[in-house]
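Support reply, case 0932

Customer input (verbatim):
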Amino acid sequence: MPVPARRWRWSPRRQNLAVYAAFLLAALWVTSRIWMDPAGRVASLYSSDPAQVQFFLAHSVRVVLHGEFPFYTEQFNYPDGVNLMANTAILALGIPMVPVTLLFGPAVSFVLLVTLGLAGTAAAWYHVLSRHLVRNRLAAAVGGWLCGFSPAMLSHANWHPNIISQYLLPFIVWRVLVLTRTRRPVRDGLLLALLVTAQAFINEEILLFTALTCGVFLIAMVVQEPHRWAAAWRPLAVGLGACAALAGALLAYPLYIQFAGPMAYHGLSDAVRDYGNDIAAFFAPGSPTLGGNERANVGLAPNYSEENAFLGWSLTLLTVGIVLWLRREVIVRALAATGAVFAVLSLGERISWWHRELLTGPWEWLVRLPLLDAVVPTRFGLITSVVVAVLLAIAVERAWSLRLPDRRTARTLTVAGLVLALLPIAPMPLSVVSRPPVPKFITADRWRAYVAPDQTLVPIPVPSMGNTNGMRWAAATNLDFKIPGGYFLAPRNGNTGDPGRFGGRPSGVGELLQEVATTGRTPKLDDRQRRRSLDELRHWRAAVLVLPFDQQNVEPLRRTVEQLVGPGRRELDVWVWDVRALTSREP
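Our regenerated output:
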């Protein structure tokens, strides 16, 4: 007798794998243009953050292979150095990526982290939602999708893998909720501590957001049902105490370095402290989405890397409708309150509507509080996006299980509503631009003939927030040479404990060469300027100055450098000035 063919069954395991595969394919779609040439392409508009992240990835290699101190480095901004704990050095991401960085370079590690950050965050939320909040896998997949691929996440995907790598957050949130009813609070508190410690080495700001969100949500639940507090406070207090004890012990020294170590700063630069959303931003699709428009979004967010609202009209209105429809459910009201609180905080110190200032926001009174003074307020919109995703998951499950005479029609309308809400903010491939390759002078190790371990290689222009190519050069060698300057946060004027700013001490040489690179005008320098420039080069212990042939305004830059230190010479694809005789401190 013929054996009957086995029917394909969508078992729960296969359904889960299909969802995870869909998330991974979507993440590859988003990053596809960068994957075509990771070293030669970068997100358009701003290229500083990817270079900084690649520098940090190379630092992780040195930590693993050479046992370097993980929380501070002198490999850039020499000789002052940089406090890496105060600069989100992503050690929890960079150290596991060391094999990839060694084999393929930090540029590949960067795009891989972005891809895994988007897909992993969506998958983690799907896992938690499907096991602990909703039974319907479609509902969990919709919630996970929006958590991983919201316009806010796509905006940060261009530049900030540390912010989009949120795959620990759903587990942290769930473990906090478990503490409210656990019979083993110490054990569960210790498990939470391990998650908290790992997240601290990915991004502390997101960890703080998670703690604030859990606090506001639990308060919203207890206000509605005070009787819950009587049973929840004791295990919660014991669990959080155990968590604080272990996490505090594990993080005590890194946090000491961050807040009291060399090059520590207190508070963010004024340039970003009041980064807030316009109210209208919640009704517009994000720039990197199907319905997005970069020109239309100008002014609604601080910049294109901080589009932290941008849910679009359809999803915003659908969310309001969900809250009204399910308003009798305690969890829905608590989620709505939580999302609203952080949506208001994300508006910053001055609340505006289509660029017109309306009134002072509550952030005005919170911005100077400890820890909050290091928060970029627009990023509170990330919390609102997650809350909307969870509300959407709950709504899909409720709609899917409605007991109506025509259930098929109800489900069809549910799918249609999801398409209407999510299609305008569907992710599109990230926009990219080409960037100059790392010079052959660097990749062929020709620089090693000039630079000793205690000396620096000075890229021209000097690395800064607006010019990070030199940081990519160093990262390509796994930081085998030191550079002055760079893009990082540090105390003003290099005084530990001062308010933060982007970059180190003001540099006369750096500002001079940056102006020439920008304007193309060659200045006429006098003896005083030459002496001051040589003093800076001695301070940096400069061994060689390097100017690539493909640098913008290369000829004006070459003529300017020659006025400072004399004639240079061509070597491979760069101009080189050997300044060791001029900068040596030996008599």
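We compared this against your earlier run and they match. Two observations from our side: The radius of gyration is 26 Å. The longest helix spans residues 227-260. Please reopen the case if you see a mismatch on your end.
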